[in-house]
Design a protein that fits this description.
about 475 residues; alpha/beta; 15 strands
């Protein structure tokens, strides 16, 4: 039980089975685990590391099996233990713990890494088959080539199911690409039913089949994939979410995407908090209000980083929710939940954008007004008088005011570029009004980036999903 390599393989196998369940049947995970990024390498590595440390203290194989089942029951619902996945996982663990069992480690399914093969070394008689629910997915030629290259064996059989009267000339396109076309009557799930019926007996029709691509986003196909795996086939479950096609290898748990979009990197907790502060400041400027809803903060964070606050918390603070990030850090954030309202409101503990005539937000509490005080930064209180908005009468004067702010901001920015949200925050500090409102008044209602582009003394570029501005 003290072999760290074996423990790592066991924990990797558990992580892989959870990832497969999360992709195929997320309803079999306990509710709090469904939102966790089980396909994300960073989350998987943390899970494996912590589970390995927990299992390292166990002395006997019997106790190890019991502890693993206890962990799984914390993550998965009882229905999962009635599926074929649980005995398969148990057999793999036993083979690793005791190499003298009837099934050796060498014959067990690879656990820690995805299986790779040399196409030239595979049996030339073995083939791959693609089953397509054309009413659900309509891959183009480039996507089809990507799917074919995912397989070990050559893709020789392609079967598409649909009511072709509804799909225009797509049947002709698939026919030209070598598909066998299966027509079904109009009606809900008719293509699903036919695809399951043909797929369940695929080995009888094509005994040399070794791999199968099941292309459908319908969850009903999960049972077909399970049956095909039980018959010894390598199954790839293909789904589409928005414009991205996801391919799950049910044998190894490996997930690929097409187009090949890199998984966003999860920032450190300190980096995430800094990003949240910047986003909250920018939204305060935009909304002209210090209190921002948690749902809006979460939306902005997802747009800016590509991940959710919950995903970041699951890696750095397992078991914690997104709201805990704010409630647990009173030196960074102030939170308020009005009575009888489910929404949480957030502001910064040190608020840099207080209006000229500061007032505190009021929330209704059983008909009574409740004032919430917010602490402002001391440096703002001691700040020397600045030009007021009344001095900015033209677009040229507004441009000059922006130039003066950028001259200060770029002193601490090696690249010379400043996020326009940061510029907006600084503008609010000095002029006590949102820069967007001033642009609307003085620059013929132009949008913020458009006005900056029109300024001869400024240069503007787009960096990811954000705009940056600098001095020429």
């Amino acid at each position: 039980m003290n072999d760290s390599t074996i423990l790592h393989q066991i924990c990797a196998a558990i992580a892989r089975e959870i990832a497969v369940a999360h992709h195929q049947t997320p309803e079999l995970l306990v509710e709090k685990c469904r939102s966790l990024p089980w396909q994300h390498p960073a989350h998987t590595n943390v899970f494996i590391e912590r589970l390995s440390a927990k299992l390292a203290a166990i002395a006997t194989p019997e106790a190890l099996i019991q502890e693993i089942e206890k962990v799984l029951r914390l993550l998965l619902l009882p229905a999962w233990f009635e599926s074929a996945a649980f005995p398969k996982l148990t057999q793999q663990v036993q083979a690793l713990v005791n190499p003298n069992t009837s099934r050796s480690v060498d014959s067990a399914t690879p656990l820690s890494t995805s299986t790779t093969f040399d196409r030239q070394q595979t049996n030339p008689d073995k083939i791959a088959i693609l089953l397509l629910d054309a009413e659900n997915l309509q891959p183009d030629l480039a996507t089809e080539k990507f799917l074919a290259n995912t397989c070990i064996c050559p893709l020789q059989i392609k079967i598409a199911f649909a009511n072709w009267r509804k799909l225009g000339k797509y049947d002709q396109e698939l026919h030209d690409r070598g598909y066998d076309l299966m027509h079904v009557p109009a009606g809900n799930d008719m293509a699903d039913g036919k695809m399951i019926a043909i797929g369940s007996s695929i080995h009888e029709h094509y005994p040399t089949a070794h791999e199968i691509l099941v292309c459908s986003s319908d969850k009903v196909m999960t049972s077909l994939c399970t049956k095909l795996r039980q018959k010894g086939l390598i199954v790839y479950q293909v789904r589409r979410q928005n414009e991205v096609v996801t391919i799950l290898n049910s044998e190894t748990g490996e997930t690929k995407t097409y187009p090949d979009t890199p998984i966003p990197e999860i920032p450190t907790l300190e980096q995430g908090i800094a990003q949240l502060k910047t986003l909250i400041q920018a939204e305060q400027v935009r909304a002209s209000h210090p209190w921002i809803r948690l749902s809006r903060v979460s939306q902005l964070f997802k747009q800016h980083t590509g991940i959710t606050i919950s995903q970041m918390m699951s890696v750095h603070c397992p078991g914690k929710k997104a709201r805990d990030l704010f409630t647990d850090r009173p030196t960074d954030f102030v939170v308020h939940q009005p009575s009888e309202q489910p929404e949480l409101y957030i502001t910064l503990f040190e608020l840099p954008i207080q209006p000229a005539n500061p007032t505190t937000p009021s929330f209704q509490n059983n008909g009574q007004s409740q004032n919430v005080a917010v602490q402002t930064t001391s440096d703002l209180a001691n700040q020397s008088p600045q030009p007021t908005l009344s001095l900015l009468q033209t677009g040229a004067e507004l441009e000059q005011a922006i130039v003066e702010l950028l001259q200060q901001l770029t002193k601490t920015t090696p690249s010379g570029w400043v996020d326009i949200n940061v510029l907006g925050t600084q503008f609010y500090r000095v002029h006590q009004q949102p820069i967007t409102a001033v642009i609307q008044k003085l620059a013929a209602k132009q949008k913020y980036p458009t006005f900056l582009k029109s300024c001869k003394t400024l240069k503007v570029q787009q960096h990811g999903k954000t705009w940056q501005v600098g001095l020429r």
